Amino acid sequence: MDQLEARGQIDNWVMKNNWFNTPEKQQIALIISEAIGLEKPLEAPPPLHPQDPFGPLFWGPFDDLTPLTVRLEIQKKWNLHIPGDSISLAWEGDWTILQFIEYCENSINDA
Question: Which of 11, 20, 34, 65 gives 45 a disulfide partner, CB atoms 3.0 to 4.6 angstroms apart?
């Protein structure tokens, strides 16, 4: 949590990041950031880096709040169910945030 707070706030961070280069990736990154900010709890949603490890960001005091929030917000935005198995796959596979975002984006585009 201290590392996320130390990043400070960067205006439009998701738009300034070359890795989040599609509207879907940008929206998914914002959804994840807001979910992390709610669970940790942080004053403001943290800017994310594509190489951030998935596991520590999705783990928190309530363990399932961040994954649940992310899955619900994606479902609400795109009417798409991201299976819970994808969270386990990302956790066990030591994915980065970018890998998880790309997985979600591919699911959206394949729907």
Answer: 34
Give residue for tokens 């004053």.
43
> H/E/C letters for each residue in the chain?
CHHHHHCCCCCCCCCCCCCCCCHHHHHHHHHHHHHHHHHCCCCCCCCCCCCCEHHHHHCCCCCCHHHHHHHHHHHHHHCCCCCHHHHHHHHHCCCEHHHHHHHHHHHHHHC
Amino acid (one-letter) located at 44: A
Q: Tens digits of per-residue pLDDT, 49-74? A: 899 988 888 876 666 788 899 999 99
Alpha carbon of residue 97 to chain centroid: 6
Place of tokens 């942080």: 42
Q: What is the pTM of this model?
A: 0.85
Q: Fill in the amino acid letter for 37.
A: G
**Tokens matching residue 84:** 């819970």
